Amino acid sequence: MITYLTETRNDHFLYFTLDNYKKYRLLIPILLFFNKTYKKCKIFRKEYKYHKNIVVVGLKYYGRNVKRRTNGFAKSFLVKNPDKNCPYCNSKLGDENINADHIIPISKGGNNTKLNLLACCKDCNEERGDVDFYRYLYAKQPKYLEIKYPFI
User: Fold this and answer.
1) Which helix (H) or strand (E) covers residue 1, if one does?
2) Helix residue spans in 25-147 (DSSP H)
3) Burial 115-134 (b: 16+ CB within 10 A, else e)
4) DSSP state of 33
């Protein structure tokens, strides 16, 4: 675990299962401090590819010149999930109002990996700007305040 956090350089993100995250949550930020390749974060994901209930603790930092294009993420999300709602305001997502939102904004060191993208409505994406993801989520959906690990 120590080697994974301090010496990894090629992965787009660093993650743990929820059980391991609970076990090492106090040690993780200290070890990530020594790995300057990754931006420290905390993203709880229900599923990503074949992973279930993972906690992303680091996103690879590519510098300030990351392209802001998300290569059709929102449209492909809508094709796979036609009945989804915006996670912030619960409005129905459709072709006319869907947008890709960066959980960790590019302006704060985020990147364009699918793990860092979330489909939401255009109004919420514009309103959020570069506000912290969980701060904005809790303001729009107070029910998440009661959940210890708010998986998205």
Assistant:
1) none
2) 28-33, 73-80, 122-128, 133-140
3) bbbbbbbeebbeebeeeebb
4) H
Q: Which residues, in sequence order, are bridge partners of residue 38?
A: 60
Task: Report the predicted TM-score, pTM, of the whole model to 2 decimal places.
Answer: 0.78
User: Which of 56, 70, 64, 4 is closest to 31 using CA atoms?
Assistant: 4
Stretch 148-152: mean pLDDT, rounded? 78
Whether 42 has a pLDDT exceeding 90, the answer reads: no
DSSP H/E element including 70: none
* 63 has pLDDT over 80: no
6-21 pLDDT, tens digit each: 666 667 788 888 898 9
CA 52 – CA 45 distance, rounded (Å): 8
Instruction: Specify the DSSP element, H or E, that contains 62.
Output: none
**Rounded-to-integer distance, Cα 98 and Cα 87, Å:** 12
As a whole number, mean pLDDT of residues 102-111 equals: 84
Upper half-sphere CA count for residue 133 (Cβ side, 13 Å): 21
* Cα–Cα distance, 137 to 121 (Å, whole number): 13
Where does the pLDDT of residue 121 fall: very low under 50, low under 70, confident under 90, or very high at 90 and above?
A: very high
Amino acid making up residue 42: K
